[in-house]
Amino acid sequence: MQVNERVCRWCLLVGVATSVSCGGGGGGTPTTPSPGGGGGSATIPVITIRADGSVDPKELRVDVQGQVRFTNQDSRAHQPQSNPHLVHTDCPAINNVGVLQPGESRMTGTFDTAKACGFHDHMNPDSSGLGGTIRVAGAEGPPGPVYIKP
Length: 150
Hints:
This protein is α/β, with parallel strands linked by helices. The protein has a domain at 44-141: Sandwich (Immunoglobulin-like), CATH 2.60.40.420. Helices cover 13% and strands 21% of the residues. It contains 1 helix and 8 strands; from the N terminus they run αββββββββ. The strands form 2 sheets. Strands 2-1-4-6 form a 4-stranded mixed beta sheet, with no helix packed on it. The protein is globular, with a radius of gyration of 17 Å.
């Protein structure tokens, strides 16, 4: 087998493995990070902001002291923030992400309390497609609302 053919087969294998491990999402089952152990690092769950104005997955689970990575695949900037809009106090760890320009990716802070954390795009708070839930330590129930009434 020639070197170019080996490289092409290796690239194909890596591409398939990447699409299998990163694909899917959006379904009814929340994404759960793989457990750490054996001295290796735990898998960091990812929420992707897609070009169609949605986040994928809409809901995921993370352990206490875990983090989530937000990735912006849209052509415009987004700012994931904790609910409720304007005060962003339910889960401040989400607010660490800040403004994500197209192609950027950034981590939340660590989640230190078991709860259901709602998030929204601060730049588009009325877009339900850009909101979701991070369930810390298996917390059930609804997250806090996007808006609170005065």
